[in-house]
Write a structure and sequence with these properties.
alpha+beta; D-Maltodextrin-Binding Protein, domain 2; 2 domains
């Protein structure tokens, strides 16, 4: 379990199994069989085995049943099960879903009471069941132990009832944290005489120009990067949001009530819309009139193009890596940090899931205890990360991956990872950004009007 310093309120009730009088009732509570049902995506049961085994050493009365879903079926199955009272105790939600699902979750309580088994006695050993009441992770510890974006995403306003004042509460904890990084084909870079991945967007543009090849009819036969369009670029809305954040765009107001990526930032230059500038930069790579033109709607999916060697660079997450290795086992590639604006504020884009507890769970204390165990305990979280091959959300584990060939780029980015509140309809918010890309490329309306329209659509989801 957690270190003793984490436990500020501890109630120990020693209950020998052969106990006396009413002590047996407490012993039964401490040792009662508990089954936690956990639902998630992308992980298989093996990723949890080591942590679950360690947890059951402390709590042999607890069994944990994990059920993995395909991502395309997960939300529908989860909503149906929760509505019918058949949902899990613990489930995963994306960091952008927390507000949308908040009414189906219960916040972390201030304390939890759970049972332990201890062996006591110097001569005659006997098994003792005890109940411990422990403080849970505080907001202060959350902010100090996890990278900054986590607190921004999981701390939400909560009002228990109309007679109580709203207060900030923790609604979930992440086991890992993914970011966008730059995958690049070393063979294509070598052939173009480029020794290293670009660190800045200026260098990136130069690399794209050098890596792009067209035939005599002007058709793109080798793309520098899959970027600039909406439908055939993996997570295009994330990539566009990343560029906006790097360019100083304020995506949403501090009170969370107004969308502001179409506005001049509070500390910005009058008349300069960094959100629009970022969108123009993004779409230039699909604009035939631009020197960096390298992509269009006729190209395959950006992941597929990189996997088959017709695109030199690909913006992807750590979760893309296993599929890439399976799809293209012979491709000679490396992964580097995403380019940044030269001299600008460094920013990366967070994409991750958090473990939360169902509001209907009857075993919420145990559920929160397990979530803290796998997410906030450094030793246990490291076991999970090693099994799942994912970057960390805990600050203390970042250094353990900085020399990892696969994960170093992602681990290097988590400290500066950022997110933005998408409102209560994540799909609609992302579609609004993709429509902005299409509108800018089509030139059907003025760019300023296009980004205002996009912001209005996202604001409707708040």
């Amino acid at each position: 379990m957690f270190s003793n310093s984490k436990i500020t309120a501890l109630v120990l009730i020693a209950l020998v199994l052969t106990g006396f009088g009413c002590g047996n009732d407490e012993a039964e509570i401490a040792s009662a069989p508990i089954q936690l049902n956990v639902w998630g995506v992308f992980d298989d049961e093996d990723n949890y085995d080591d942590v679950v085994s360690s947890y059951r050493t402390l709590h042999p009365n607890v069994s944990i049943e994990y059920r993995e879903f395909r991502f395309d079926e997960y939300e529908e199955e989860l909503i149906r099960a929760l509505a019918e009272g058949e949902g899990p105790d613990v489930f995963l939600v994306h960091n952008t879903w927390v507000e949308q699902y908040k009414s189906l979750m219960q916040p972390m309580p201030k304390t939890i009471t759970i049972g332990y088994q201890e062996v006591r006695g110097r001569v005659k050993k006997e098994v003792v069941n005890i109940l411990r009441t422990e403080n849970t992770l505080s907001e202060r510890s959350l902010k100090s132990d996890f990278v900054d974006v986590v607190a921004q995403d999981v701390i939400r306003s909560y009002q228990a009832n109309e007679d109580t004042a709203p207060e900030d509460r923790i609604f979930g904890l992440p086991m890992a944290l993914d970011t966008i990084a730059l995958y690049w084909n070393k063979d294509l870079f070598n052939a173009a005489g480029i020794a290293e991945a670009p660190d800045t967007w200026d260098e990136f543009q130069e690399a794209v120009i050098a890596l792009t090849k067209v035939d005599k009819d002007g058709n793109i036969v080798q793309s520098g990067v899959g970027m600039g369009t909406s439908e055939n670029v993996e997570r295009a809305s994330d990539l566009l949001a990343l560029l906006m954040l790097q360019n100083g765009t304020e995506m949403i107001s501090s009170n969370g009530r107004d969308v502001t990526f179409d506005k001049v930032p509070s500390a910005g230059v009058k008349g300069v819309l960094p959100g629009l500038d970022a969108t123009r930069f993004y779409t230039d790579f699909a604009n035939p009139t631009k020197e960096v033109y390298t992509w269009n709607a006729d190209q395959p999916n950006s992941f597929d193009a990189f996997a088959n060697g017709t695109s030199a660079m690909f913006f992807g997450y750590a979760y893309n890596l296993p599929l890439l290795r399976t799809t293209a086992p012979k491709i000679n590639f490396a992964i580097s940090q995403v380019p940044q604006i030269d001299g600008g504020r460094q920013a990366n884009f967070a994409n991750y899931f958090v473990m939360v507890v169902s509001k209907d769970s009857k075993k919420s204390d145990w559920a929160w205890d397990f979530i803290q165990y796998i997410s906030a305990d450094e030793e246990q979280n490291a076991k999970y990360l090693d099994s799942a091959d994912k970057p960390p959300a805990l600050r203390s584990l970042i250094s353990t991956q900085l020399e990892d060939e696969d994960l170093s780029a992602f681990a290097s980015e988590v400290l500066t990872a950022r997110s933005w509140y998408h409102g209560n309809d994540i799909v609609a918010a992302e579609e609004a950004l993709l429509e902005l890309v299409d509108t800018i490329l089509a030139g059907s309306i003025e760019p300023v009007d296009a980004i205002e329209l996009s912001a209005q659509k996202v604001e409707q989801t708040l």
